[in-house]
Amino acid sequence: MIVVEGDVDEVPEIRAAADLIVCISELKLDDGRVPAFTSGDWVTGIASTFTVNGTVNPTLRIRPGEVQRWRLVAATAFTALRLHLTGTTEPPVMAQIAQDGITFPAPVTRDEVNLAMGNRADILVRAEQPGRYELRAAGVPGPLMTIDVAGPPANPPMELPASLPPGRPFLDEGDLSGPGADREIVFHADPAVFPGPFPNAFRVLGSHPTPAADPAGDLTRDPAYGLFDPGHTNHTLRLGTVERWTVRTDETMPEHNHPFHLHTNSVLLTHRNGRRLDPPVWHDTIGLTGGRPGESATFLVAFEDFTGHTIAHCHQLHHEELGMMQTVHYTDGEEAPP
To answer: How far apart are CA 41 and CA 39, in angstroms?
Structure first.
């Protein structure tokens, strides 16, 4: 892990806390080996093994009254994590202070920390009662990590900070660069499009999808429509502008997750499923689960600092490798976005 430090590290309550990386990884193992990735059934047919910092269910020790800072990393390829602490008595308090490397205005107490594949979150964990507790993720059998609260209590008990240094300034709708500053991204999968072991088409539709091979034909069976084409630029984005993107999935099954990731620029999540967040939250990856309807997210993004070609894609490894990806071109010229 690469740790980037800043003014939040100098907050007295945070500086006093033990600073721990909690990197949750996901392995596909069959009899101790990584099997060949030969079909789409490889993902669902082989149970995942989860590790924390390379160990299956390690034990972390913390004293009663102690505060620790956990830098959570969802280094998972296929599974989103809804993290929570459990135990026989009241579990330790979790207070989130940052998302994807950007500090919150103030700590936010959480019963559950949601991490899509690739998300990071900094949390302060304060142990109250001695005992053994577990870090678990909804839908994942077994604990990810065991927490042993024992030893001489911290005297005096450690405190959580009441406020944090100003993080990245928020954007608002008044920053939008004109009436053409809205885009839509739709994650969509069509089954049984291709012959062979990977039959499904994982498409990115909405604004500026990759063109179809046969625009007059059945787009649900088209072998190119909405699929990644390294020779095609889907979005041309001009530095110094601000846009509003709405990203959604039309998957009907809740367990299907399509995390959206835009390279280079963080995005300010302002709405979840049409409901405004107060305050908004900076992200670089946003998880979207399926359902009836599937989830949607609206964010503001300012294009800054770097020009050149990069990508926007689904952060579920299987999906993006099979086409759920687009090319983005950041430009500092006067070329108008498509």
So the answer is: 5
